[in-house]
Amino acid sequence: MAQEIYFSVPSGFYADDIELEMTSNSSGDIRYTLDGTDPTFESPIYNQPITVEDRNAESNSISNIPTNPATTYFKYVWKVPSGNIPKMRIVKATLFNNSIPISKVFYQEYFIDAPLSDIEMPIFSIIADSVGLFGYEEGIYVPGKDYDDDPDTWQPGNYYERGSDWERVAQVSFYENKNLVVRQKVIMDMHGGGSRIMPCKSIRLAAKSSLGNEYFEFPFFKNKNWTKYKRILLRNSGQDFYRSLFADVLLQSLLKNQNVEYQASRQVVVFVNGAYWGIHNLREKYDKYYFENYHDGDLEDIDYMEIAMEYIAKEGSTQDYENMNEALLNLDLSIDENYQTIASQIDIDNYIDYHISKIYGGGTDWTGNNERIWRTHNQGSRWRWVGNDYDDIFQELEKDSYQHATRTDWEQWPNPEWATRLFRQLMTNRNFAIQYKNSLRFHLDNTYSSANVIAAIDSLTQIYRPEMPRHIQRWNYPDSLEKWEATILDFKDFAMQRPDFIWENFQQYFPSIYENPDEIKLFPNPTKDFIFIDLPEWWAPNINFQIFDTSGKLMQDGYLSKSAQNKISVEHLPKGLFFISIYDKSHFESHRFIVIRE
């Protein structure tokens, strides 16, 4: 029988100090600690109930450890916490036979007193060996020896190291509505690229069968159906850490009804070894398990790549994509036959939605960076783009994003010629250009309408606002609550004006497409009962249409007439976003429309 230690009071939230008793099913001495360290033979022996008190008045300890060097860019440099930050009590106990431990370490977590009880967000507690996190030679959360060995390289530090040597075993607990709902051992390591330089860093947590659990089996994200995750992220909001904390969360939330993969999110408070670590964004992780969940792909049968100033294979190979992009140098896509060759390799609807999201956000760190693309090896599978890394958006209202996306005179970060090539070549094809323009107009009127985006900003602001004072006390980022509130107002101003600016920007770069009167007209949009379609004169007599939902399921098909205004009933369709493909023997257009219900 395994040796067990039992605690009379479970982990949780308590208004006052608690009296704790510990018992065991085996003989031996119970040795315990109250500071979160593992018990040793030098630890006190439990022989009577102990009083567990709150820790909030204690010194900050690990929270005062600098997590980036003083040479860091001034916007990101680590700052000392403002006063004592909140702390919870970790009680650990191990059974000893004389000097020999004969059981594993058992522990409970106690959040005591008001500063902890009024946290409204869910809580992730991470317990790991402090040397493995903050030690000079092996600490994965500090600049450490790696920085001192080569401080002149671009952003050196222990936290930039990768691989199994820089993974740490950790115990995580997840509290929802103050109830402990997940507790298991995991593999922990750092996540992200340049954002690892931030004082607060993104953390990757991976379940592993050898540690007791092959998956996290809990529905972390209420708007997604999955209850089983192999890996999850506790994200620091990247370069947005010192601004809003939710730029990427905001933009990706607007993708949920589009033909683009996006990462679900929740806002959580993190504790590290009992110390308050601030707000993080709990996110899904893009990997083979993600695509397996949402697209029924074979785990060993996908290509998943990252563009980070080079092609990086995350799963499978990048070769086919590289070959396709290279072929564009000698392929005239204004010829429909050539265009169809490329369209058979990439998901055009997906690419357009993704591209417009980047244009709208006005970020800089793309097209040669922060792009993720994937496909399965199944017959007919095409490359698809996923929503990723919108941390630098909403900063430049008048950002000339089409100039950025069509640049040809640059071979360095962030938009070398080879990275803008696909969009530039596709826009030479009339059918693609019209589809892109129609999609842009649709998204500016709906997805990225001022009312829709401001509503999303307000919704997120209400979640973050109650916790921001504590987060600012911990990190001194943003500079103050007032500075954070000013950023929210800036976001709203961006949302009010950006659609009009983008439309003018598009007209400037593609005047022949904007001014073309010979295009299909579809109205009303949104609609409840019918859509009307007007066709230009140059279409051939035999015209077909197909209506698909966002998963690609065919919902309706039929024929259109050139001689009269076409009226299509959509009364049978459920509420949501749909795509209608209209085509004759030599032309193809795709439009989208929304069905609304009372």
What tags apply to this protein structure?
Immunoglobulin-like, seven-stranded mixed beta barrel, 15 helices, 29 strands
Order of the strands making up the biggest sheet: 10-11-12-13-16-18-17
How far apart are the first and last residues' alpha carbons, in Å?
Answer: 61 Å
Which shape, going by the Cα principal axes?
elongated
Q: What structural class is derived from the secondary structure elements?
A: alpha+beta
- Report helical residue fraction: 10-25%
Task: List segments where confidence is low: pLDDT < 50 over at least 5 consecutive residues.
Answer: none
As a percent range, the share of strand residues is 25-35%
Number of helices: 15
What is the typical, i.e. mean, pLDDT? Answer: 92
**Cα-based radius of gyration, to the nearest Å:** 27 Å
Number of strands: 29
